[in-house]
User: What shape does this take?
Amino acid sequence: MKDKHLEFVQGVINRMGQNSFLIKGWTVTLVSALFALAAKDTNTKFVVVAYFPTLVFWLLDSYYLYQERLFRKVYDHVRRETTVDFSLSTKHFDNGISDWAGAAVSKTILLFYGILFITLIIVMNYLK
Assistant: This one.
């Protein structure tokens, strides 16, 4: 029974990781399309518009990482417990916005979106 509960939690963790991967893919696709439009007409407005989805996807990606971390705590809890209740609740492990902010500035998230923001600044200055 405990093995099945751990499988359920692991399935949620896997989905969070997959969602994060898809968000990064959508971010690169959308920003690249806006770069192409900006280069076509040498219009910096498209680059400025690219800041908004980049920021939104950064927050969304951070949320998925935050949720993944919560479910990893649930997994550790289930691994150690003796009774199986099949609960997937994260409320006992949730410290709120500070954990989400911690996910937003984690190495992997900050590296990916930081490079993207630096690229946006370079492209905007190049098109001026």
User: Anything to note?
Assistant: Residues 2-127 form one domain. The radius of gyration is 19 Å.
